[in-house]
Amino acid sequence: MAKQSFAKKVANTQIWKSIFRHGPPSNARNRAAVVAGNVFLHLHPIKLKKSGVQLGYTWCMGGLTFFIFLALTVTGILLMFYYRPTAEYAYNDIIALREHVPLGIMRELHRWGAHAMVITVWLHMFRVFMTGSYKPPREFNWGVGVILLVLTLLLSFTGYLLPWDQLAIWAITVGSNMAKATPFLGHGGPGASLAQIGDMVLVSDKNDVRFQLLGGRFVGEAALLRFYILHCVFIPVVVALLIAVHFWRVRKDGGISAPL
Amino acid sequence: MKEFINIVSDPVYSFTGAIILYFLALKNMTFVGSKKFFMILATVVVLFFGWAASDKIFFTIISWPDNIPITILLVLVFWLTWYSFYKGVENDKRIESGEPPIEGTPENREKVWAWPNLVYTELFTIILGTVFLIAWSVLFKAPLEEPANPTWAPNPAKAPWYFLGLQEMLVYFDPWIAGVLLPGLIIVGLIAIPYIDINPKGNGYYTFKERKFAISTFMFGWLVLWVFLIITGTFLRGPNWTFYGPFEFWDPHKVVAANNINISEIFWIKILGMGLPHNVLIREIVGILMVLGYLAVGPFLITKYWGKKLLEKMGPARYYIMVYLILIMMGLPIKMYLRWFINLKYIVFMPEFELNI
């Protein structure tokens, strides 16, 4: 009896009431209030079709992808405290992270989380395809989802370079060599040799798309800085914006799909 | 036994096997979507991996830390593919007997509160996901190799695992196709799906029968091409990107006869017994005609014998975009078989313009 009255006392304080503006979500009115009144929970509709909350239908892969994205943001920010994106320090900082932090698993969480996010985002797309959820009125949101999938791969790809070990630079060398072969825009691609004025070569290894991507002719210090900024700032900001669009459209297109 | 598996893992056999299995699965969907099939498949897979993992070489490749996500992916992909077919077959049976799909029963259409039904499910998955990630991170250290050394390339130098399908395509196509054109078209093609597929059925529930064509096409690109090539690129490609069976030692000195030739050489030298003409366009005329024929006559023949009704239903814009996307997708297996059967290197070989197909 004493305990319950203590809980009631807490719930009656000005502090508690200022944070939670409604009673416990045990009746209809409060259940609506808790979802509508909370900035994070209001991503959800207040009520939804039962088929949309069943794991057997959604696999929760989209939700998991978003959760892993948040987890990667947190672990990534923590890693940024210890990591300097220069050829001189990068590798040693990673070593230090491994040797000097007792029981440290931030880098592991970040790396395995990144792999897991690629997997969940693929499976999310697969589920959406298999349930035909891209069909009208959700065509546009499917397209946003495809872009988000590509950006997820690019996030993982740019992050792959940052440990600055053999695995990193050669994987990125293999990957960025593809850019060399872009038709007309890469110096090894079809059509590039046609872009010539007299003896002046217009598309060379000093100005083609691979050069723009790497900031040089090979994977060096400039590439490390570029990939670091793309990985930590540019792509995450774009992804966050598109996630907002994606979630908003899920709601506006009628919520999680169900038979018409 | 291991010898045999080493041999049949060669893409010539394993890819053909994958295609045959794909068609068998589509034809026998009711069986594939049954629990019995899942039990058989799971038993076979568990027994095989249990047996194979006792092999040192196999175990080394499978347990390399960066390869673990692919193993997880494979397990999830095959399980969830089966599961979606299972649900699809169940729904097809219901629809056939006049009932709504399971997602459309009055009980499932009922509205429930987001709190607690949805919020608690999410909390549960978040906790499960956190536990899983932490366990994974404690068990396996993130790999770190020697410091970067631009003057010494490891052999093989592999891209991250999710791009190994593209790297594997490099065996058959030049980088401008494997690394730029095809990835670009994959993205465009995926975005185009909802605008091409105008079948109103199967919206919001699992089914197979109502969307046979859409699902089969997607499955071919996703499982038979993308996932298969990633498996090959990850587990079966060693030094110099040479093929190695799952139980084969990665001997960097393994020699593979590479006497691939171009269409122009087959035509001018082997068939006509002449030298190669000097003019590029004349030299490559056969290959150019073959590619143009594939892209111009292909759609015409497809429409004439098979697609007339579809063309009427979809309208020309949708129809031809779909036909071209599928034709270009099928270009990959076609080139693969040409390589294997007649050692073809390039259909069109014009290094003068860096334009090789």
Brief sketch in words of this structure:
Chain A has 260 residues and is mainly α. Helix content of chain A is 63%, strand content 3%. Chain A has two domains: 1-47, no CATH class; 55-252, Cytochrome Bc1 Complex, Chain C, CATH 1.20.810.
Summarize this structure as a short list of keywords or feature phrases:
heterodimer, A: 260 residues, mainly alpha, Cytochrome Bc1 Complex, Chain C, 2 domains, 63% helix, B: 357 residues, two-stranded antiparallel sheet, 15 helices
The residue ranges of chain B in which pLDDT falls below 50 over 5 or more consecutive positions are: none
Architecture of the largest domain in chain A in CATH?
Up-down Bundle
Instruction: Kindly provide the name of the CATH class of the largest domain in chain A.
Output: Mainly Alpha
Name the structural class of chain A.
mainly alpha
Coarse morphology of chain A: globular
| Average pLDDT score of chain B | 91
Oligomer: heterodimer
How many domain units of chain A?
2
Q: Please tally the helical runs of chain A, counting DSSP H or I stretches of 4 or more residues.
A: 11
Strand numbers in spatial order across the main sheet of chain A: 2-3
Q: Which range best describes the helical content of chain B: under 10%, 10-25%, 25-40%, 40-55%, 55-70% or over 70%? A: 55-70%
User: Terminal Cα separation of chain A, in Å?
Assistant: 51 Å
Strand content of chain A: under 5%
Question: Could you say which overall geometry of chain B the principal axes of the C-alpha atoms support?
Answer: globular
| Total domain units of chain B | 2
Instruction: State the order of secondary-structure elements of chain B, H for helix, E for strand.
Output: HHHHHHHEHHHHHHHHEE
